[in-house]
Amino acid sequence: MSDMADLFEQDRPERASPSARPLADRLRPQRLDEVVGQEHLTGPEGALTRMIRSGSLGSMIFWGPPGTGKTTVARLLAGETGLAFEQISAIFSGVADLKKVFETARLRLANGRQTLLFVDEIHRFNRAQQDSFLPVMEDGTVILVGATTENPSFELNAALLSRARVLVFHTLDEASIGKLLARAEEAEGKPLPLDEEARVVLLRMADGDGRAALTLAEEAWRAAGKGEVFDATGLQAIVQRRAPIYDKSQDGHYNLISALHKSVRGSDPDAALYYLARMFDAGEDPLYLGRRLVRMAVEDIGLADPQALVVANAAKDAYDYLGSPEGELAFAEACIYLATAPKSNATYNAFKAATAAAKEHGSLLPPKQILNAPTKLMKSENYGKGYLYDHDQPDAFSGQDYFPEKMGRHTFYEPVDRGFEREIRKRLDYWEKLRKERQGRGS
Pairing mode, if any, of strands 60-63 and 165-168? Predict the structure, then answer.
């Protein structure tokens, strides 16, 4: 061997020993039935198991949170069906990379073997890049398995979705993560250095992410001295608490705000407070939360409690004045007030109906009697003629019709029999009775 070759051999890094590999990598399942938490897909009667049994594997989209086994399942699928496995990430790949992968797959198919192409974070590809998969899916060059943490209905092209089956991966429950930790203890040949309470805390910190659970376990083993066992406080000090899964611009954000809004609408102040606290804990923009509370006040409470809007706006002002963390209590107070207020969407429905009518009927002229007549020409056209000043009428109510003549009367606002709207209903019924009397249509 030459001196240069000797030097090259000396500089070449040694291959990492199995124990140096991350625990999550070492415990990666070798068979589909070893995958935990996705039994609806990988169990004896799971969707993927049935596909393999039938010998017919089509393109798929795996939708689910991080750490639920999407990449592992795709790799195992290829192994159990004899397909070549090719993996790319939409984060690091462009058009040139896709062309290269497709060409390789075509050559492989010409030699009698099909390719399972796994595309991680497929939602990050733009529309044109997503469209480029269509021909190779249709002619059988590849079986596409795309993985996404975002809702495919919003993030993927309809053409791509129509050619692929969406399979949902579930967040791992505590029992599934417990199985992973038991496997880790078996692989390490020692128990986790955690007391019972700390073990429960670790399960919660994992937040349904199997990979995160194994990483946290690894940190605990790494930090423990000989014979040392951590309690919950000690564990939290070691791992510095893993942040919740929450992307303020993606599904986590929309899921929680939806849960908050529906809890308020459903008059459940405890659930509403929980989701409000989770969003604050995850770093949500307080101004966004303030706006949403105002929207709940006008959309779901309305005139059933006119103070709801006042309270929601006051909470926003209080937060501006106090800042965090004191100002967060103002949002909590508003949240409780809104959740416990009587509910009505009558205003919301009325405005929606009025908007539809405005678009349907076009630019109709209001009745001439309620139009001002600042010029002689307008007076000659009877603008303002016959107008009755309501304050001069009995009960301060003239009963005149204010809709355009060609449109006729419409009823948009139907107050509910709850809260303050119960009183509004009485007023409207009384005025309707007077209107009919004064227009000669009633008794």
Answer: parallel
Is the per-residue pLDDT at 241 higher than 50?
yes
Structure-model confidence comparison of residues 247 and 37, the more confident one: 37
Residues 97-133: b if buried by 16+ CB within 10 A, e if exposed = ebeebbebbeebbeeeebbbbbbbbbbbbeeebbeeb
Average of per-residue pLDDT across 420-427: 93
Residue 308's region, left for phi above 0, alpha for psi from -120 to 50, else beta, is alpha
d(CA 122, CA 133): 11
| Number of other CB atoms surrounding residue 147 within 10 Å | 25
Please give the sequence-ordered ranges of beta strands (E in DSSP) within 35-114, or none if there are none. 60-63, 84-89
- Answer whether 116's CB lies under 8 Å from 83's CB: yes
Contact yes or no for 360/408 (Cβ under 8 A): no
Is the pTM value of this prediction over 0.70?
A: no
- Ramachandran sector of residue 404 (left: φ over 0; alpha: ψ -120 to 50; beta: rest): beta
What lies within 8 Å, CB to CB, of 52 at 6+ separation is 32, 77, 80, 81
Say how far apart CA 137 and CA 435 lie, in whole Å: 68
State pLDDT tens for residues 250-275.
Answer: 667 788 889 999 999 999 999 999 99
At position 306, the amino acid (one-letter code) is P
User: DSSP secondary-structure letter at 87?
Assistant: E
